[in-house]
Prior knowledge:
Layout: H1 3-12, H2 20-32, H3 44-50, H4 55-68, E1 72-81, H5 100-108, E2 112-122, E3 125-129, E4 160-168, H6 171-181, H7 184-209
Antiparallel strand pairs: 1-2, 1-4, 2-3
Amino acid sequence: MDDALKRRILTEWGIDGLSFDQQVVRIFEKVRDVPFGQIGSRDPKDVYEQNKGTCSGKNFLLRELYKGIGVRTKDMICLQRWKDLTWFPDDTYGVINFPDELVRILETIDVVDFHNYVKIFVGGKWITLDATIDLPLRELGFYTTEHWDGRSDMPLCFVGTHKIWDCGDDGLEKKAQLIEMLPQEIREARHLFLIKLTGWVNSFREGRMG
């Protein structure tokens, strides 16, 4: 993303006139509030223009805007299993009530995925951020951070595992490599699951608007 577009977004979103601490929080909130959903692109420019994106595109947009105010960033990826969102013995994560067609996929095969998030360097330390899920999706059981202090780690939106990759600025390329390494059966199941997940989320949004 070029510097002119970053500056345009920061101005349009009213971030330029804030203090540095306020900018850090506000950038996260604005990107978090971009609706989660598939657009066929992980490019942060496309996420901004279409006002929609998945974990990759939204967190890449987050990264670019933090760079726009001089914050050091790095892309992070963790292995995740979608079935872990159907239960979790911790108050942080609720249970997502997936529709039957998604549950059937998860009961048939272990759908493995790779979740993008971001770390930023503020206050002399690296902090974990994840802007994947917008607030309305909490009604479906998804987790997201609502009130963030700008200084502390936040829980990931999806339950991750101990397998973590620090990708520097190459999160997009690394994710593509990791997905390509999956067995074909799991790649196909992942693709089908994400299509149906997006359809379910879109139907939810249409219902709220109706």
